[in-house]
Description:
5-stranded antiparallel beta sheet; Beta-Lactamase; rod-shaped; alpha+beta
Amino acid sequence: xxxxxxxxxxxxxxxxxxxxxxxxxxxxxxxxGFLSYKKSSDAIQxxxxxxxxxxxxxISGNIKKDVEKIENIITExxxxxxxxxxxxxxxxxxxxxxxxxxxxxxVLIKKFSNMNYIKGFGLKTSADDLIYYGEENLVFDDDYxxxxxxxxxxGTEFLLLPHNNNENMFLLCKNFxxxxxxxxxxxxxxxxxxxxxxxxYRDINIGDGGEIFILDSDGVVVSSRSADIIHISKPYYExxxxxxxxxxxxxxxxSFKITIQDxxxxxxxxxxxxxxxxxxxxxxxxxxxxxxxxxxxxILLIGILCIIxxxxxxxxxxxxISSPLNNLVNLMKKAKNGDLRIKAxxxxxxxxxxxxxxxxxxxxxxxxxxLKVQNSSVEVLNNSxxxxxSSIRSYQVxxxxxxxxxxxxxxxxxxxxxxxxxxxxxxxxxxxxxxxxDNMKVILDVITNTEQLSRDALASVNTxxxxxxxxxNVTNKIVVDINELNTDMKEIRKIVKVxxxxxxxxxxxxxxxxxxxxxxxxxxxxxxxxxxEVKKLADQSKEASFxxxxxxxxxxxxxxxxxxxxxxxxxxxxxxxxxxxxxHAAFDSIMKAMDDISNQMLKVxxxxxxxxxxxxxxxxxxxxxxxxxxxxxATVEEISANTEEQMFTYKDFVNLSKNLNxxxxxxxxxxxxxxx
Length: 676
């Protein structure tokens, strides 16, 4: 661990702070960005998959209802009196046949004049009589009759009929029999425009690049809203599509992934009941992932902005620390070279300002000390001459004694110098320990402030969590209300359908009444007028019912869209609550870590106090040694005084005075190095 700290200390403080800020910014942004992208991508794909399957099922159901509607019309026609009379057409005269054909044509015109999607309707009797409406080139042959008989046994079936004018049509065929005898009378066939079925999904939007079309069991496209892209009456360009449809259908799965023209797509499908046709919807994954790709771009942009902001903050913080330290280092280098005219200028009030102020005080103390030494050296130079003249007389007598005293004085001086040096070093150590103590107090204050900020942030997260819960409750209420409204719309649609059925029955009754009035001759003309008015009222009721049904369909589409958006908002709020809970847990971890750091700092502070106490005892011991040295020096002075009586000359003092003079000069030269 010490080796690692030394390795870190080899890097400058500025680089360390920059690296720490960048790492603390990149790691959380990377983790949060990845989780957000993954969760949102999965949620969007699952929701679109579910809604697409439901939408395709609804389209399949609508097409089935459209087919059943036409089947009901054919069944109704087959039970009409005009059609049932065709049982005797082989026994009719030519005139009666013409009249019967005229009546049937009149019924067909009244029935299909408002049905633009019926391109043609034909009736072929067992006597090979042909009655048609619409396209005159409608042809009946034995193949169609056999086909009608075959599918009549299994249920309703329709297939794609290639028309001679290259239009795409559906053929719906059915044998009809006599009500009384059960004998087959003939075959009814209706040619239906393909647009009648594609119109039910033409305006449905399943996303950019998404397509809806109908395939038969052989993989041939029988209906498409984009015929220029997906060609009708031709096999679908992705050959594996129909095999995949049949494969997943056996597994009760209605969606799968497939590659179409080198692009991965999601496929949702639904088989139309009683047919061999599939309604298929394809959605490219490029559309499904568009929002998540946009999200990851936004996350990257935010991450880059956060890194830039962290760099700016770290540069500001490191500059606020490194600039004063660099200034202090430069001033110390000048002081090392003897320039004591320096002064650290700092107007701030942080710890570095205190250090710079202490440095200024130290320089002032050194300057005062040097001035005193200079004055003392001058006095030493003046007095050394006097000592030299007086010591010549006693040099010979006290030479031996003076040598002894010199040795003793030298030992005592060395001891006193060592004690002084030890005291000076202890003072330096004392100042450093005091600085460490002050820094520990500052660190404790920073930790306390950080804990308070964490508590405030935790309170904000709790508030955000409560708001998210309230938002989720409101969204759930909206979804429930929309679903209830959707249910009410379905009930109204059932009522409208009943009205339509009543109008159709009334229309049929008015038709029968007109026929009976025609048979009655002049006596039934008034009744025929009444029947006509009843028919008009029935037609108006039917048209109004269709209008109401269209309005209800529009309302229901809007409510479905609103419900979809509300459900999406519900999921987003759930993700938000999950993120808030994670943030709450992160702040709890930060609080625990700050408590541990605070406890460790208290222990360190206690250790520093112990060092300060030991320092005090050490300083006292060194001062005691210095006192003893001073006492020893006093003893030497007493010995020197005792030997003065025996000294007649102090020639030895001459040498001492010369040495003292030389030392004074050396001291003066050394002091002159400093610029005060």
